[in-house]
Amino acid sequence: MQPDISVKHLNKVYGGGFQALKDVNLEIYPGEIFALLGPNGAGKTTLISIICGIVNKTDGEIRAAGHNIVTDYRSAREAIGLVPQELHTDAFERVWDAVSFSRGLFGKPPKPSHIEKVLKDLSLWDKRNNRIMSLSGGMKRRVMIAKALSHEPRILFLDEPTAGVDVELRRDMWEMVRKLRENGTTIILTTHYIEEAEEMADRIGVIREGEIILVEEKNQLMSKLGKKELRLQLQNPLDKVPGELTLEPVELSEDGYELIYTFDAQEQQAGVARLLRTLGELDIEYRDLQTRESSLEEIFVGLVHE
Amino acid sequence: MNLYGVRAIYKFEMARMRRTIMQSVLAPVITTSLYFVVFGSAIGSRMGAIENISYGAYIIPGLVMLSLLMQSISNASFGIYMPKFSGTIYEVLSAPVSYAEIVLGYVGAAATKSVILGVIILITARFFVDYHVLHPFWMLSFLVLTAVTFSLFGFIIGIWADGFEKLQIVPMMVVTPLVFLGGTFYSIDMLPQVWQTISLFNPVVYLISGFRWAFYGVSDVHVGISVGMTVVFLAACMATVWWIFKTGYRLRS
């Protein structure tokens, strides 16, 4: 399948000599939701800005919807919608006019029925005649999404789409993103909310100091890099981990009432059975046990701090 | 060509004029009317004719040119500076519009506003001073050519400026003195020889001279030179805009 976004050997060095991107290679396929994660200053926004034509690349080749973003920039950009991180809006414009402006700018003839649909989908229809400056932050964020969707792009970039929005709006946006994907739109989002990526993404890329350090299916990533933890609450406290258990990565809590066994989520759970059997043999009784899997956030923190 | 894109920018800019009609149209019309009242009617009636043209009528081309230049620069510089300032420039930079189309949208709108304003001022002048236009075609041509040229110049200033103060510096500190010293209120023939020579380095002299020729058939320099100088300035502005987009100067990092 031809990727919707193809980035090959992309480098970006800013005027001052700072290298923001280092030999970035990335492919994003039609209809997927791709989450790009990385700490502040990792290069996420630079990467998106280059693909969208806002920042010049130093070298490398980028294609969007099969079109080179430099030599065939019109076709490439027609296919892309961008919701930037900052709330950049023209305060004095009315919602309807602002969204219609975006459609025209991207070379599409007027289509009021589409603008109406977008505004209704984003709960902006009642606000269509309001000036943007009179809207709340969350509503302005919706306007920016409406502008990005006004020209019916097949690729949508969402740069920190839910930064600073309330929980309800965040859930609404997730719902909207899912609907877009169902209609075949490819979605690339950057986010600080790992929960967001965990909730929505099909694949995840992690960028650190300008380098893509990992691209993986979300589920595979969770199982490959995720850890599981078994906590056993003991009937009676222990002074130290019994010698028979030292083969397993087992720790004892400070008060001696809890044994903590950590293992790879991918592994067969033979270790758990072995641990429980050994405890039985040693007559160590436990009141309760709990298991938990590490979240994407813990995986992400582990990756970027390696 | 992305005609819808050009139209979107053009319409957006024209809508901005409608929103700020007091500042865009009314303020310059009132200011220029005051010039007509003071210099045209009050003082002008006590001054002798210049080249057989009453003083009030003589200063009309220069005053129209003053407003045209200031408004062309102001409209175009503000038009491109505001998206830079507010951050909405991201949308124009990421849209499938070429550099030429961006310029056409912004500069076209700024020039249109200036021409409309110029015509309004000419109509207003009629209430204060009696004047005639000997070469209407050339008058309109000068009006459009100057509006386009100085809108391009304003576009360059808007991209160069990184603060509101810089937007004002060039119109106030450079263009206004050049217009006042460029023969708006007098013929440069009235100056001592040395100042006549110095005045020829002022590009506005050629604009006002050519424009006045279109009205009354009299000029400080030959009309061909006026047209030539305006076209040279237009070409210089176009070359600068081309360089800005080629390098991404203050637009794309």
UniProtKB/TrEMBL annotation, chain A:
It comes from the Bacteria. Residues 5-234 form the ABC transporter domain. InterPro entries: AAA+_ATPase, ABC_transporter-like_ATP-bd, ABC_transporter-like_CS, ABC_transporter_ATP-binding, P-loop_NTPase. Coiled coil: none annotated. The keyword Nucleotide-binding applies. Keywords: ATP-binding, Nucleotide-binding, Transport. This is ABC-2 type transport system ATP-binding protein. Gene3D superfamilies: P-loop containing nucleotide triphosphate hydrolases (3.40.50.300).
From TrEMBL, chain B:
It is found in: Cell inner membrane; Membrane. One of its GO terms (molecular function) is ABC-type transporter activity. Its main location: membrane. GO terms for cellular component: ATP-binding cassette (ABC) transporter complex. It holds the Pfam family ABC2_membrane. It is a multi-pass membrane protein. Keywords: Cell membrane, Membrane, Transmembrane, Transmembrane helix, Transport. The chain crosses the membrane at residues 20-43, 55-82, 102-125, 137-161, 167-188, 200-218, 224-245. InterPro entries: ABC-2_transport_permease, ABC2_TM, ABC2_TM_bact-type, ABC_2_transport. PANTHER family: INNER MEMBRANE TRANSPORT PERMEASE YADH-RELATED, TRANSPORT PERMEASE PROTEIN. NCBIfam families: PRK15066.1. Belongs to the ABC-2 integral membrane protein family. This is Transport permease protein. The lineage of its organism: Bacteria, Pseudomonadati, Pseudomonadota, Gammaproteobacteria, Pseudomonadales.
